[in-house]
Specification:
Its cofactor is AMP. This protein is an alpha/beta fold. Helices cover about 25% and strands about 25% of the residues.
Length: about 250
Amino acid sequence: MKIVVPIKRVIDHNVRVRPTADGTGVDSASVKMAINPFCEIALEEAVRLKERGLASEVLVVTIGTAAAQEQLRGALAVGADRALLIETERALEPLAVARTLARIVEEERPGLALLGKQAIDSDDNQVGQMLAALLGWPQATFASALELEGAKARVTREVDGGMVTLELALPAVVTADLRLNEPRYARLPDIMKAKKKPIERRALEEMALDLPAQTEVLAVETPTPRQRGVILDSVDALIDKLRNVEKVIP
């Protein structure tokens, strides 16, 4: 069985993001880029399934500029078999990403599409669900455990009241949560080998997809700094401050 793992190139989670000088977006110049952490978890799970003999091939896919080859090679270094870059300078919205991935899935015919539940830059949490709807496949989101048994997948997910286990007929779409696994570090020999592996490249425009923009970014601003809190000696002092200083209670 083949597993397709879409990944996204994002600013490293340890970097403090800043808006561009003109306020039209986030400044990504000269900052460290990385694979989205949730995508790393999905990739790790796919590689583990292959190592257990439950998958024959792991295909990692990303949509972006030529610079995203760095993240694809990182995925190859930890165990992906093939890498595909859909090249575009556009910043695609979730539905456009899902439509592009649906075309790839239809061509590759995998038994499982395994994604991170969301990307840390936009936090939309939409692509996995949209991809399942476009393909007409069953889906399980926020997976904290995944088991494959023949033509079925058993997925455990956390909900407010505890844990829920779902059984899905394959092919299916599964999105990974933090507790699914802990991604491995790539070994130096594997990193060197990954540098020599080919990366398939396709232009997004050649796929003849209708991907109109549906939203417009008006401005990106740094959040207003929070005011420092104060410690009061008693409940009476708190009530007095709220009533006479802050004037939030009568």
